[in-house]
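Consider this today:
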Amino acid sequence: MTTKYKSAGGLVGVVYRGEVRATVVQGAGYNKPGHHACELTDTGNGLIAKFPALLTCDQDYYVCLSYSQARDLVLAASAFKQELGFDA
């Protein structure tokens, strides 16, 4: 499944979803179109989000969440949907 999002600032992000992984790819308007911004994997026990490094001197950043924590994070982030550009 592929979903395309366009924020109020004109940035385009494309989400590709497979069976256990979803990937956000930066599109038009970003400095590095085609860059994987985030990869979310369902481990069967929860979710692991990987934010790949943008520079060779940086490290990838990982966030591990239980399903309950992930749900709570989505609910909390939805309160900021306008600031994040989803309410455009």
Observations:
- DSSP finds one helix and six strands in the chain.
- The beta strands are 2-6, 12-17, 21-26, 36-42, 47-51, 61-65.
